[in-house]
Design goal:
Elements: H1 5-11, E1 12-16, H2 22-36, H3 43-47, H4 51-63, E2 70-76, E3 79-88, E4 97-105, H5 114-128, E5 133-139, H6 143-151, E6 155-164, E7 167-176, H7 179-183
Helix pairs in contact: 2-4
Length: 187
């Protein structure tokens, strides 16, 4: 059987998440963390992930009507295979700074252009909401994510630390300083 990337791309729908998709979003996050971070995070953290608690978090996020924050999902049929959570940049100096807070694609669907489509859709939606730049943070040791963001034109913009499950991890930020230029039609 020949793999048809074009047909796969056409079968994937990217749209705003609905409230009843919190459990599906949680499944994607837990599955992706366990795959992507198995060499980075302790097994205690990864084995302790609880889809019910993660779903409760996403249900709370989806129930908030903040106006400028949103979650996009990528679906194949009814199945959520990826998502991006976005909104105004945390600790921003200006209201025009956006952020992709989380971006996860299930391992079996990676390297098929879904992540890139989600980033592009996220940037377009941030721009519609008046944001002119975007930032994405990732763990410093997540080499695959870093290469992905660099291929998409992200500029390494800083380093910080985050606490996950009582353990400290170094994270790095990638910036896209001009979403308007990035979203112009390519000739």
């Amino acid at each position: 059987m020949r793999y048809d990337r074009q047909a796969m791309q056409e079968a994937i729908d990217i749209r705003e998440a609905e409230f009843d998709e919190a459990a599906a979003i949680a499944r994607v996050q837990v599955e992706t963390w366990r795959a992507a971070y198995r060499e980075i995070m302790s097994s205690r953290i990864l084995e302790g992930l609880n889809e019910v608690r993660v779903a409760a978090f996403w249900a709370q996020v989806l129930s908030q009507d903040e106006g400028r924050s949103f979650i996009l999902v990528a679906t194949v049929g009814e199945r959520v295979i990826a998502f991006a959570s976005c909104g105004p940049r945390q600790n921003a100096r200006a209201a025009s700074e956006g952020e992709v807070y989380a971006l996860y694609v299930v391992e079996t669907m990676q390297k098929q252009g879904i992540g890139q489509r989600l980033v592009e859709a996220s940037f377009a939606r941030l721009a519609e909401l008046g944001m002119t730049s975007a930032r994405i943070w990732t763990l410093r040791d997540n080499r695959a994510a870093r290469l992905f963001y660099e291929r998409l034109g992200g500029l390494l913009a800083g380093e910080g630390s985050t606490d996950i499950g009582g353990e400290s991890y170094v994270e790095v930020a990638y910036d896209w300083p001009d979403l308007r230029r990035r979203l112009k039609p390519k000739m």
